[in-house]
Design goal:
binds S-adenosylmethionine, single chain, 16% strand, disordered N terminus, Rossmann fold, 6-stranded mixed beta sheet, 6 strands, 5 helices, 2 domains
């Protein structure tokens, strides 16, 4: 062991040197890390965490996030939130959402934020396409277009929260924009968190 090596017994959060017993302890430590993936759908955003052995807990309907009870034993390391965007979409400018629709949509967003308040994780992020949610959550911490992380589409997406913003890894856009077309936000697969963004987010927020 090098003289500069910091042992896990000295600081629990220190990353492993990879060459001593700390490697085993670090791998064990990551497996013990709970990630909440709220409104997680396919689980695409949390998939890199799952692959790395984290304990990912995905909540989606019929498990309503608004009914999530506080679990003192859970202590999530990170919380990902991807509440539905349909009501906030600019594609709906043709007809403004009713107050009842807004209340229902905001209640899902609020429930995600309640989990953040309850658990105070090391990092958390809430994503939504760039849309009317900014009226309620204020300025996002980051905004990206999917191709800026090497994914296919353009779709501008906002991220609120407390996390390390991943470095861009741009690649040419491979999918035509649906902005201001009848197809905007129409395809369910467009709601899936793009995999290269998910990977970049994971690497910036282990
Ligand atoms: C924008 S999609 C998220 C998609 C996800 N990022 C993915 O990669 O598949 C929103 C998700 O929220 C879920 N959802 C809607 N209302 C919910 C609620 N009250 N509780 C939990 N999940 C909900 C939907 O079923 C949907 O999967």
């Amino acid at each position: 062991m090098s003289p500069s090596h910091v042992c896990h017994t000295e600081t629990a959060n220190e990353r492993s040197c990879g060459t001593c017993c700390c490697a085993t302890v670090a791998a064990w430590d990551e497996r013990m890390r709970v990630i909440l993936d709220l409104c997680g759908g396919t689980g695409s955003w949390s998939e890199p965490y799952r692959q790395a052995g984290y304990d990912v807990r995905l909540f989606d309907l019929p498990n309503d996030v608004r009914l999530l009870k506080f679990d003192a034993g859970l202590q999530p390391h990170g919380i990902l939130c991807a509440p539905p965007c349909t009501v906030f979409s600019y594609a709906r400018n043709r007809y403004e959402p009713t107050d009842a629709e807004l209340l229902a949509a905001l209640s899902v967003v609020d429930a995600c934020l309640r989990a953040v308040v309850m658990y105070r994780p090391k990092w958390w992020a809430l994503e939504n396409p760039r849309n009317k949610l900014r009226r309620y959550l204020s300025k996002p911490l980051a905004t990206f277009k999917q191709w800026e992380y090497g994914d296919a589409a353009d779709k501008a997406t906002c991220l609120w929260g407390s996390f390390n913003v991943p470095m861009f890894r741009p690649a040419p856009r491979r999918k035509a924009s649906t902005f201001r077309t009848r197809r905007q936000n129409a395809d369910p697969e467009d709601a899936i968190t793009p995999p290269r963004f998910a990977r970049a987010f994971f690497e910036a927020n282990p």
